[in-house]
Amino acid sequence: MMVRTRKGLTERHQRILDYLNECVREQGYPPSIREIGKATGISSTSVVTYYLKQLTEMGLIERDAKYSRALRLPNAGPEVTRVPIVGVIAAGEPILVPDAGVTYIGDEMDAVDVARSILPGREKEERLYALKVKGDSMIDAMINDGDIVIMKPAVQANNGEMVAIWLPDREETTLKYFFKEGEHYRLQPANPTMKPIIISKDEPLEIKGKVVMVIRQIERASL
Question: What is the pTM of this model?
Answer without folding.
Answer: 0.58
